[in-house]
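note to self: dont lose this again. the chain is below, predicted strucutre after it. 107 aa total, dont forget to put it in the shared folder this time
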Amino acid sequence: MSTDMYGITDQQWLTTQRAVLTDEFAAQTARLTELTADTGDPADVDTHAGLLAVTRANIEQLTGALRRIAEGSYGRCARCDGAIPPERLEILPHARFCVPCQSKHEG
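---
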């Protein structure tokens, strides 16, 4: 098991990432609950539908990241199987691709 310059082990880092993802999952699930219960202004139907779609997509991404942690594949690129830098995962914890593969995937 390796440590970084701050003395954090890979397992500690992964535990922290799991906690961040779990907290965000709970927040997004609560938001989805609020949105589905909202009986707001009928004029805001498009905005409401957009918020529902984004929230559901966020939950799907978070679920996938938590699944990859459980499977042991978190932090590995889904395309090239290379390591996704921890800095990228700290910014985008649900990232499935390294930056070069993400560029190819979008392009």
